[in-house]
C-alpha cells in the first residue's frame, strides 16, 4: 500500500493507528487488559475492540503508542504467552510523561517490579516491571523531560552500566 493510500485509509477510521505495533499474547486477555489499565495506566481504544465469543482482541494506548492484546493462539498465529514459554518473550519500551508518578502508581497497584526506578547513564530515568503473564515492560522518561517538569537528577547517573563480568 502506498503512503498516500495508507494515509487515506487511516483518515477513514475513527482511531488513528501507528504503522507498526505489537500484538501481545495472553492466556487470559480479559485479566491482562484489566491489569494493564489499572497498574500501567494504558487506556483501551474502545472503538477498536473485537470480540469472538469468550475471546477478544483489544487495542490499548499510552501517549502515541499502541499495543494489541489478544488470546494466545498457537494453532493459527503461533503466539504463546510468556507463561507458557516459561520466559519473557518481549520487552515493551514505553516513554512516560512523569516516570516518578507512574512508578508510584504501579507500585501502589501491585506491579511486579523487576528493576527499581533509577537514572541511567544514557539520559533516561527508568524502571522495569513484569506483567501478570510475564511480558516485560520498560518505562522511561528522558532527562530533558524530567528537568522541564521540574524534576531533579543526579550529576553522574550510573544506572544501566554493564555489571562486572558481563
Question: Any overview of this molecule?
Answer:
It is a single chain. With 166 residues, this protein is an alpha+beta fold. It has a single domain, classed as 2,3-Dihydroxybiphenyl 1,2-Dioxygenase, domain 1 (Roll), CATH 3.10.180. The protein is 25% helix and 31% strand. The chain contains five helices and nine strands; from the N terminus they run H-E-H-E-E-E-E-H-E-H-E-E-E-H. It has helices spanning 3-11, 29-40, 82-85, 99-108, 143-148; strands at 23-26, 43-44, 50-52, 55-62, 65-71, 91-95, 112-120, 124-130, 136-142. The strands form two sheets. Strands 1, 2, 3, 4 and 5 form a five-stranded mixed sheet that branches. A four-stranded mixed sheet has the order 6-9-8-7. Strand 7 and strand 8 form a beta hairpin.
Summarize the structure in short.
This protein has 166 residues and is an alpha+beta fold.
Anisotropy-based shape:
globular
CATH class: Alpha Beta
CATH homologous group name: 2,3-Dihydroxybiphenyl 1,2-Dioxygenase, domain 1
What is the annotated CATH architecture?
Roll
The overall average pLDDT, rounded, is 86
Domains (count): 1
Binned strand content: 25-35%
Oligomer: single chain
Helix tally equals 5
The computed structural class is alpha+beta
- How many strand elements? 9
CATH topology: 2,3-Dihydroxybiphenyl 1,2-Dioxygenase, domain 1
Unreliable stretches (pLDDT < 50, length at least 5) are 1-13
Span between termini = 44 Å
Computed over alpha carbons, the radius of gyration is 18 Å
Helical content, roughly?
10-25%
What is the element string, with H for helices and E for strands?
Answer: HEHEEEEHEHEEEH
Describe the main β-sheet briefly.
5 strands, mixed
Amino acid at each position: 500500500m502506498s503512503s498516500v493510500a495508507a494515509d487515506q485509509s487511516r483518515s477513514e477510521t475513527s482511531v488513528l493507528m501507528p504503522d507498526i505495533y505489537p500484538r501481545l499474547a495472553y492466556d487470559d486477555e480479559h485479566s491482562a487488559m484489566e491489569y494493564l489499565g489499572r497498574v500501567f495506566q494504558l487506556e483501551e481504544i474502545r472503538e477498536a475492540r473485537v470480540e469472538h465469543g469468550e475471546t477478544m482482541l483489544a487495542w490499548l494506548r499510552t501517549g502515541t503508542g499502541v499495543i494489541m492484546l489478544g488470546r494466545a493462539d498457537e494453532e493459527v498465529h503461533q503466539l504463546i504467552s510468556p507463561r507458557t514459554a516459561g520466559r519473557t518473550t518481549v520487552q515493551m519500551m514505553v516513554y512516560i510523561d512523569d516516570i516518578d508518578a507512574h512508578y508510584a502508581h504501579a507500585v501502589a497497584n501491585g506491579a511486579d517490579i523487576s528493576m527499581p526506578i533509577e537514572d541511567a547513564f544514557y539520559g533516561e530515568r527508568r524502571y522495569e516491571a513484569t506483567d501478570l503473564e510475564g511480558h516485560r515492560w520498560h518505562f522511561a522518561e528522558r532527562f530533558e523531560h524530567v528537568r522541564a517538569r521540574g524534576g531533579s537528577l543526579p550529576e553522574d547517573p550510573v544506572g544501566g552500566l554493564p555489571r562486572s563480568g558481563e
